Amino acid sequence: MEKMLRVYVYKEGEKPVLHQPVLKGIYASEGWFMKQMKASKRFVTKDARKAHLFYLPFSSRMLEEALYVPGSHNHRNLIQFLKNYLDLIGAKYPFWNRTGGADHFLVACHDWAPAETRRIMARCIRALCNSDVKEGFVFGKDVSLPETFIRNPQRPLRELGGKPPSKRSILTFFAGNMHGYLRPLLLQHWGNNRDPNMRIFGQLPKVKGTMNYAQHMKSSKYCICAKGYEVNSPRVVEAIFYECIPVIISDNFIPPFFEMLNWESFAVFVLEKDIPNLKKILLSIPEKRYREMHMRVKKVQQHFLWHPRPVKYDIFHMILHSVWYNRVLHINPR
Q1: Is 0.90 topped by the overall pTM?
Q2: Going by C-beta distance under 8 Å and a sequence separation of 6 or more, which residues neighbour residue 326?
Q3: In this protein, which residues make up the domain named Exostosin GT47 (predicted)?
């Protein structure tokens, strides 16, 4: 890929929706990718005729922030903005109309992105955090985008890592807002400190002298990644970041880079209906198996990290490879 792939980045469009990467918060993946894609000398070509792929550099987060009318429950103006943008590049260049957008791609982390792009960008390769097949995610064409929560854009790798297996005294941990139907069920069965091995909270209590969120993840064997309103959660990448085994409870979730990574070798998938059996499931995993999974979490961690400048095999390269892989697969189906 590194030797041959060339990407054309459209320069048209106005800030803040286009060309303005958001580098902090839970939607940071789309911003970091935009920033690093636009700056890439290895992959970007200024001659669109030489491009294999065409990148649409808009922010789904800024689209919502700039144009959504709070309380309206209406996304038409957001969709119309994107349609106007496509009309602009379609009128100026032949490339969109040539393939109907099949060699174009977008990278979007906001929950609404699948619905807003489903029709007008139907043939595009869509890298989406909300990778839900029931929400229109097209398996084999679209790409599951890792949701990364960046707290400090100047130091994205701050606090990386965690305790070794022998020092992880907590069986499992979860803390978060009670979004959706699943998390209240998790809290109902395992919350309120009823079991000291099952540290399951809503909002993590802030008590002086107690562990914070990151310290809990660094000290736990397993970290619960339960869906909220949508199938995705930043906890999947956070668990890997802190070298905790991700326990994914989200029945329709397509994990990132699944075409390259064997997720079952370093993560646990629990069906939503099996929440009452969660502790039993985790305790049934032999210690040897847990240590193997922990070793593999540390090994795959490199694929989920943002660096100030892209590093080979990091998250930037993995996202771009997934897009390229799906494009090649789409052109040459097996």
Answers
A1: yes
A2: 125, 140, 141, 142, 143
A3: 2-283
